[in-house]
Structure formats: structure tokens, C-alpha cells
Amino acid sequence: MINEKIDHHFNEFSPVDFNIFGDTPLFDKLKQENLAYGKAKALDNHITVIKEQIESLLNQEDEQLTTAYGFLSHEEQENYREFLEKLQEDCARYLSDVENNYS
User: Fold this and answer.
1) Which residues fall within 8 angstroms of residue 19, CB to CB, at 6 or more apart?
2) What are phi and psi of 50, to 5 degrees?
3) For the packed helices 2-11 and 74-101, what is the interaxial angle rounded to 10 degrees?
4) pLDDT-derived band of residue 2, with 50, 70 and 90 as boundaries?
5) pTM for the model
6) Residue 54 — very low, low, confident or very high, per pLDDT cuts 50/70/90?
7) Which pLDDT belongs to residue 58?
8) Distance separating alpha carbons of residues 83 and 72, to the nearest angstrom
9) Which of 28, 57, 26 is nearest to 43 (CA)?
10) Taking CA 8 as the corner, what is the angle to CA 44 and CA 4, rounded to the nearest 5 degrees?
11) Which residue in 98, 91, 81, 93 sits closest to 6, CA to CA?
């Protein structure tokens, strides 16, 4: 259910044009796409911005975020943050892998 709620939100400004949801880890998708380092870094930045917003929302630091993310329950916000953390880990792993292959 949360995938359907955040799919448009996440993908609206995403620098990649493939779906991040599904059974395949993001790291595997990035490798399969052979995503350029710059695009992978842009994706990592995109994930970081959204994760910071969700964390600020969960800490009740910004009333505007409460309105913007009102479509998610508190539990869904927690799940979204956890999902974003996994995406960040996969991005970091991919970026490191690309850096090590070009060193």
C-alpha cells in the first residue's frame, strides 16, 4: 500500500527513469542499468533530501511538511524512512563500487 502512495511522490523529481519499487534491491537495479556515477549521485542526493524531510516530519519540526506528507499515516512515514535508508545504503554501495572500479 505504501508503495502506491509514495510512488508518484518519489518518482516526480527522481533523476532515474526506472521504478525503484519491487522485489529487486536498488543496488542490483543500478548495476543492471549500469547507471553513470553522476546519475547515481543525483539519485543519492534525491533520496537524502526526501529522507531529511521525513525525519523532520517525524520530529514535528516543520508544519509545512505535515501538510505535504499528510497522505501518509505516522506508521507509513516510519516505513518510508526505513525504505529510504535501505535505498541510501544501496546507493552508497553502488557509488563505492563504481569508484573502486575506476581507481
Assistant:
1) 7, 11
2) -65, -40
3) 50
4) low
5) 0.85
6) very high
7) 94
8) 14
9) 26
10) 110
11) 81
